[in-house]
C-alpha cells in the first residue's frame, strides 16, 4: 500500500513537471516573458539550425575579443530548452574581462590555440588553468570569470550555457560604464580619483 502511494506520488510529480509541448521555437515578434517567448506557429527543420558561427572572427573592441552568440534572440529554437551556445574568438593578446552570467553555468570547449580561464568562488578562492585544443572547462553559474588568449596565435572556443538567455554582467562596465558617481566609486573601491576618471573614460561612464 505504501509502495503504491509512493508510486502515485512519483507519477503525479513527474506529470506536473512534464513539458506539454515537444518544442516552442520563439516567436521573436512577441515580447519575452519570464517564462520565455510564445511559440512560433509554423516551423521547419531550418528553425532548428544555426549557421552563423564562422571561423576566426576578428575583434574590433578594446579587449580584442569577439563573441558570436546563439542565444534565444539569435537562435529562437532554444526557447524553453534551457541551453544555448556562443563562439569565442580571441585575437593575440585578447581577453574577455571579468564577468558573470546570473542565469547559467558555462562550458568552454577550446578548439584552437591556448586559453587561460578562471573563476572566483564566492569565498574568493581563485581557480585558474591554461587549456589547449580539445579541453573543456566548466564555469559554475553566477561566479565571476574571465578568459584570455595565452598563446601567440588566435584562439577560439565554443561556449555552451545552461540557459537560453544566460545574461552577462561585465564588472568594468558595472563599475565604470554608467553614472555611478566618482565620489561613490572612490569610497567603495578605494581607487585613486585619477584611476576612476581614466576607467570612466574608457568604459563610457559619467558623473
Ligand atoms: C562575427 O561573425 C558573425 C557571423 O558572421 C557576425 O554576425 C558578427 O558580427 C561577427 N562579430 C565581429 C565582432 O566581427
Ligand atoms: C543615472 O542614469 C539614470 C538612467 O540611466 C537616470 O535615471 C538617473 O537620473 C541618472 N542619475 C544621475 C545622478 O545622473
TrEMBL record:
Keywords: Apoplast, Disulfide bond, Glycoprotein, Manganese, Metal-binding, Receptor, Secreted, Signal
Binding site for Mn(2+): 99, 101, 106, 145
Gene3D superfamilies reported for this sequence: Jelly Rolls
Chief location of this protein within or outside the cell: secreted
Domain Cupin type-1: 51-197
Compartmental location: Secreted, Extracellular space, Apoplast
Secretion signal span: 1-18
GO molecular function terms noted in the UniProt entry: manganese ion binding
Disulfide bonds listed in the record: 24-39
Residues holding oxalate: 101, 106
Any one GO cellular component localisation term in the record: apoplast
Superkingdom classification of source: Eukaryota
InterPro entries per UniProt: Cupin_1, Germin, RmlC-like_jellyroll, RmlC_Cupin_sf
Protein family (similarity comment): Belongs to the germin family.
Xref: PANTHER family: GERMIN-LIKE PROTEIN SUBFAMILY 3 MEMBER 3 (PTHR31238)
Protein name (database record): Germin-like protein
UniProt source species: Medicago truncatula (Barrel medic)
Annotated gene: 11419921
Amino acid at each position: 500500500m505504501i509502495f503504491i502511494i509512493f508510486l502515485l506520488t512519483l507519477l503525479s510529480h513527474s506529470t506536473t513537471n512534464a513539458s506539454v509541448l515537444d518544442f516552442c521555437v520563439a516567436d521573436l515578434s512577441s515580447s519575452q516573458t519570464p517564462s520565455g517567448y510564445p511559440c512560433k506557429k509554423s516551423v521547419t527543420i531550418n528553425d532548428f539550425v544555426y549557421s552563423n558561427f564562422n571561423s576566426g572572427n576578428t575583434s574590433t573592441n578594446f579587449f580584442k575579443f569577439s563573441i558570436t552568440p546563439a542565444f534565444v534572440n539569435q537562435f529562437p529554437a532554444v526557447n524553453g530548452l534551457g541551453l544555448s551556445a556562443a563562439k569565442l574568438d580571441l585575437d593575440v593578446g585578447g581577453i574577455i574581462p571579468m564577468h558573470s552570467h546570473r542565469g547559467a553555468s558555462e562550458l568552454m570547449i577550446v578548439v584552437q590555440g591556448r586559453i587561460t580561464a578562471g573563476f572566483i568562488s564566492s569565498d574568493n578562492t581563485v581557480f585558474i588553468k591554461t587549456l589547449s585544443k580539445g579541453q573543456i572547462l566548466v564555469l559554475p553559474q553566477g561566479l565571476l570569470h574571465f578568459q584570455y588568449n595565452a598563446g601567440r596565435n588566435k584562439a577560439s572556443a565554443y561556449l555552451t550555457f545552461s540557459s537560453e538567455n544566460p545574461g552577462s554582467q561585465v564588472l568594468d562596465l558595472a563599475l565604470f560604464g554608467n553614472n555611478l558617481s566618482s565620489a561613490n566609486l572612490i569610497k567603495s573601491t578605494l581607487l585613486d580619483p585619477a584611476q576612476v576618471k581614466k576607467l570612466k573614460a574608457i568604459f563610457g561612464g559619467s558623473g
